[in-house]
């Protein structure tokens, strides 16, 4: 199962991705708004990759797409999809290595996954949430077509502080009318 764009290949994780995953998830700037803390150990990355390899993108739960730069064949990030039990809704999240940010790769990868979710898997809605301080993530969601649906004030206790969460949603009808 592979998705391709002009510059990226989105594929299943492989055991050889462990070191690259640990490296970009260890960056404090990357980990700032995520559920994990830096450094992200090789053991943790190894366990994560094993879990990702075993996941089924057609079954409820999380599936992580490895985002690989097509020209260099290097892992530059990941896009996660949490498929709901009804198989018609999902939550999406994404992470990109610090040196790869600002080049449109995350936007390209998220669009490819959304297109797959809506046109191939037939989902009705995809949701996303982000820390309200993560302006770049909020802009990405809006750029690809998500609508801001709400704000949960001081909703998440993470890394010893309460954070506000922005809630986003994108309906299949909206995606398909833009495609």
Secondary structure layout:
Layout lengths: L2 E2 L3 E4 L6 H9 L1 H4 L10 H13 L6 E9 L4 E10 L5 E8 L8 H16 L4 E7 L3 H9 L3 E12 L2 E11 H7 L1
Helix pairs in contact: 1-3
Q: Can you walk through the features of this model?
A:
- The protein is an alpha+beta fold.
- It has a domain at 3-126: Gcn5-related N-acetyltransferase (GNAT) (Aminopeptidase, 3-Layer(aba) Sandwich), CATH 3.40.630.30.
- Helix content is 32%, strand content 35%.
- It is built from six helices and eight strands.
- The protein has helices at 18-26, 28-31, 42-54, 105-120, 135-143, 172-178; strands at 3-4, 8-11, 61-69, 74-83, 89-96, 125-131, 147-158, 161-171.
- The chain has an eight-stranded mixed beta sheet with strand order 1-2-3-4-5-6-8-7, with helices on both faces.
CATH class of the domain at 3-126: Alpha Beta
Succession of helices and strands: EEHHHEEEHEHEEH
- Indicate the CATH topology of the domain at 3-126: Aminopeptidase
Question: What is the number of helical segments per DSSP (H or I, 4+ residues)?
Answer: 6
Rg: 16 Å
CATH superfamily annotation of the domain at 3-126: Gcn5-related N-acetyltransferase (GNAT)
Q: What portion of residues is helical? A: 25-40%
The share of residues in extended strands comes to 35-45%
Class per helix and strand makeup: alpha+beta
- In the CATH hierarchy, the architecture of the domain at 3-126 is 3-Layer(aba) Sandwich
Mean pLDDT: 97
**Strand order, sheet with most strands:** 1-2-3-4-5-6-8-7
What's the shape? globular
Low-confidence stretches: none
Biggest sheet statistics: 8 strands, mixed
Distance separating the two termini? 22 Å
The counted number of beta strands is 8
């Amino acid at each position: 199962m592979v998705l391709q764009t002009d510059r990226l290949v989105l594929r299943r994780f492989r055991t050889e991705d462990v070191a690259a995953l640990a490296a970009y998830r260890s960056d404090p700037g990357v980990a700032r708004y995520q559920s994990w803390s830096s450094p992200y150990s090789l053991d943790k990355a190894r366990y994560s990759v094993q879990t990702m390899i075993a996941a089924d993108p057609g079954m409820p739960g999380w599936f992580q797409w490895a985002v690989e730069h097509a020209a260099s064949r290097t892992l530059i990030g990941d896009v996660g999809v949490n498929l709901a039990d009804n198989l018609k809704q999902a939550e999406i999240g994404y992470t990109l290595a610090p040196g790869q940010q600002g080049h449109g790769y995350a936007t390209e990868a998220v669009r490819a996954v959304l297109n797959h979710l809506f046109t191939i898997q037939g989902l009705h809605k995809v949701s996303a949430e982000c820390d309200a301080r993560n302006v770049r993530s909020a802009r990405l969601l809006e750029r690809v077509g998500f609508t801001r649906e709400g704000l949960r004030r001081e909703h998440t206790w993470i890394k010893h502080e309460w954070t506000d969460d922005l809630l986003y949603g994108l309906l299949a009808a909206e995606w398909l009318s833009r495609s």
